[in-house]
Amino acid sequence: MSARTILRTGALFSGVCLWISAAGAAVAPLFSFDRDTFAFANETVFEYHQGHASLRHENGAEKPKRFTSHCFVMSRGAAQFRKFARFDPTLSPLDDKQLAARIRKVTGRKPWAAPLAIQDRITIPGLGWPTYCRPGNGRIFLPHGSAQQARTQAELERVLARGEFFVAYLTTFPESLSINHGVLVYAKEKIFGGGKRAQKLRYRVYDPNHPDGPRTLEWSQRESRFLYQRDWDFVGGRVVVWQVYGRFLQ
Q1: Nearest 10 degrees: Cα torsion 74, 79, 85, 91
Q2: How confident is the model at residue 9 (pLDDT cuts 50, 70, 90)?
Q3: Does residue 125 contact residue 94 with C-beta atoms inside 8 Å?
Q4: How many domains does the chain have?
């Protein structure tokens, strides 16, 4: 091997190493529930007692303003901010109008698009509309048996394996409407039962109704169905899962 060839090979190798190092430095950190979710809650239209809904009983002449029916917007927004925005605490704060314009730049991007490189993201200094009537939500009227749910779970696995986020529409329709809700699935938590024959898979969920901590979505391999945890606004148990914002009109 000639000296010139050795020099060329060394230069190429050094360039590849520098590119890999730069790419690694530009990779965003893993999703953190405390850092990457909203500090406020999506409020519910109804009151809930042990997971069962009832009409709210407001006292007084004026009803308080509530931030309700935005679970899909908040789930989508959490994914969009992770993919398209970055925060810089060294910059001067923006006024409300400027900040709203930056936020619209983030939320105006297609949520299924590939993440931007860190240096190309929309910079925000510092550390809507009701969404139940989305076109994609009409799929609750389509067949959704165990085979369809198995395909949804397989797509969930593929999305998480790519390091992306899965915005899920949870419903119990047509059996009931005990839940009609949008959440963000962001990580696979544990495998129960051992190996490929595990009976249950568990996923970590950002639920806009619960900013205090992650919730749990389970997949039962044996029964080919999803189960969502019990909370004050849901009795817990089986849910039908549909992916939303994975592509156009979804």
Answers
A1: 50
A2: very low
A3: yes
A4: 2
The Cα-based distances of 199 to 137, 151, 191, 222, 241 in angstroms read 29, 17, 8, 6, 18
CA–CA separation, 39 and 167 (whole Å): 19
Q: How many CB atoms lie within 10 A of CB 25?
A: 8
pLDDT, one tens digit per residue, over 25-62 is 345 567 777 777 776 677 654 455 454 545 445 565 55
Instruction: Give the burial class of 53: count Cβ atoms within 10 A of its Cβ; 0-12 exposed, 13-18 middle, 19 or more buried.
Output: middle
* 240 contacts 151 by C-beta, under 8 angstroms: no
Q: Is 71 left (phi over 0), alpha (psi -120 to 50) or beta?
A: alpha
Q: What is the DSSP letter of 38?
A: -
Q: 87-116 pLDDT, tens per residue? A: 887 888 888 888 889 989 998 999 999 999
Give the span between the Cα atoms of 157 and 150, in whole angstroms: 11
Q: Of 125, 147, 171, which residue sits at a domain end?
A: 125
Q: What is the DSSP letter of 68?
A: B
- Please give the residue range of the domain that contains residue 93: 33-48+67-125
Is-contact 202 217, C-beta < 8 A? yes
Strands 122-125 and 85-88: parallel
pLDDT tens for residues 145-181?
899 999 999 999 999 999 999 999 999 887 887 888 8
